[in-house]
Amino acid sequence: MQNILFVCLGNIARSTMAEAMFRQMVKDANLQDKITVDSAGTSNWEVGNPPHPGTQGELFKHNIPFDGIKARQIKPKDFDWADYIITMDTQNIDDLMRKAPNKAAQQKIHMAYDILPGYEGKEIPDPWYSHRFDITFEQLSETLPAWLTKIEKELD
């Protein structure tokens, strides 16, 4: 079993979009019994809120369900639970590195684009500011398949 946690600042835009998209990819690959997906935010600003309307609209446009996804803040136990903590920008990385309880937890933290050679360190900007949720969807569509391929190879 592999546990994947997507993290952004508020857990209403990028990480919730990534969670919904990756859940659908896992389902399409018939791997629901082998890969668990969740998301969280580094801040507590949006706890309990549904995904941003822009995120909902983009997911709806692509027929990707987001039922039951509500914003939450990352907890210490998440660092133990997750095999991969996939985040969106350098501020998320910095926040998570400070929150991580130990070196082993820090080694689980990756930026979404780090999976693609030549794109290491590339950020997925927060669409809360730009309102370009379509670009966020495109960027996640570039990175998430590579993460699924990597994780699928590590199963069993």
UniProtKB/TrEMBL annotation:
PANTHER family: LOW MOLECULAR WEIGHT PHOSPHOTYROSINE PROTEIN PHOSPHATASE, LOW MOLECULAR WEIGHT PROTEIN TYROSINE PHOSPHATASE. The lineage of its organism: Bacteria, Bacillati, Bacillota, Bacilli, Lactobacillales. The active site is at C8, R14, D126. Its EC number is 3.1.3.48. The keyword Ribosomal protein does not apply. One of its GO terms (molecular function) is protein tyrosine phosphatase activity. InterPro entries: LMW_PTPase (IPR050438), Ptyr_pPase (IPR023485), Ptyr_pPase_sf (IPR036196), Tyr_phospatase_low_mol_wt (IPR017867). It holds the Pfam family LMWPc. Belongs to the low molecular weight phosphotyrosine protein phosphatase family. It catalyses: O-phospho-L-tyrosyl-[protein] + H2O = L-tyrosyl-[protein] + phosphate. Gene3D superfamilies: 3.40.50.2300. Residues 2-150 form the Phosphotyrosine protein phosphatase I domain. This is protein-tyrosine-phosphatase. The keyword Metal-binding does not apply. Keywords: Hydrolase, Protein phosphatase.
